[in-house]
């Protein structure tokens, strides 16, 4: 069975495992560092329509019908998309899936007319910092500085003019009835 991308919404039942595990991971790493309500409050901060066309999108990478990775973006301004919820299921890490998700989200941003990408990660996610740097994102902070004091670590990247399809042998995109 091939892995494939599906553009859908955060209310898709296939996204529930992803969002639940992401919430647990945020709580384990950050507790109440960012808000008194912890990760659950953060995960409820944006209504599902925020990550829907025409200004956003919500992506799942599926294997045998189960979400193994995903991410989303929303409009930050007319030319800039903000990536959110980049995630890989804990059982499927270290396979390059997060990089595939980034490449597909970048391609979709290009298709939707964005020219710039903005994203943030938390100070306790060194693997995310490494991922973004490896994929050409520019740190908007000093990576050698006190990251814990910064708490939120911003990155930017110009949307590739002709965003490429990831070179993954099992790459297929399915559009789940969602306008792109």
Name of the CATH superfamily: Gcn5-related N-acetyltransferase (GNAT)
| Silhouette | globular
What is the spatial order of strands in the main beta sheet? 6-7-5-4-3-2-1-8
CATH C-level category: Alpha Beta
Number of separate structural domains = 1
Query: How much is the radius of gyration in Å?
Result: 15 Å
Number of strands: 8
Strand content: 25-35%
What name does CATH use for the topology?
Aminopeptidase
The helix/strand order is: EHHEEEHEHEHEE
Mean of all residue-level pLDDT scores = 85
**Main sheet, how many strands, which sense, barrel?**
8 strands, mixed
**Helical proportion?**
25-40%
Structural class: alpha+beta
* CATH architecture verdict: 3-Layer(aba) Sandwich
The number of distinct helices, counting runs of at least 4 residues, comes to 5
Name the poorly predicted regions: 165-172, 174-180
Distance between the termini: 25 Å
Task: Write a brief caption for the model.
Keywords: Acyltransferase, Transferase. The protein is an alpha+beta fold and 180 residues long.
Can you describe this structure?
There is one protein chain. With 180 residues, the protein is an alpha+beta fold. It has a single domain, classed as 3-Layer(aba) Sandwich (Aminopeptidase), CATH 3.40.630. It contains five helices and eight strands; from the N terminus they run βααβββαβαβαββ. The protein has an eight-stranded mixed sheet with strand order 6-7-5-4-3-2-1-8, with helices on both faces. The two termini are 25 Å apart. The relative contact order is 0.19. One of its GO terms (molecular function) is acyltransferase activity, transferring groups other than amino-acyl groups. InterPro entries: Acyl_CoA_acyltransferase (IPR016181), Bact_Acetyltransf (IPR050832), GNAT_dom (IPR000182).
